[in-house]
Amino acid sequence: MSDAADRKEPMSPLVRMAVEIGPLAVFFIANNRFDIFTATAAFMVAITISLAVSWVLARHIATMPLVTGVFVLVFGALTLYLNDDLFIKVKPTLVNGLFAAILFAGLFFGKSLLKVVFDGTFRLTPEGWRKLTWRWAIFFVFLAVLNEVIWRNFSTDFWVSFKLFGNVPITMIFAIAQVGLLQRYALPEPKTPEEEEAEAERQRETL
Question: Does the reported pTM lie above 0.70?
Answer without folding.
Answer: yes
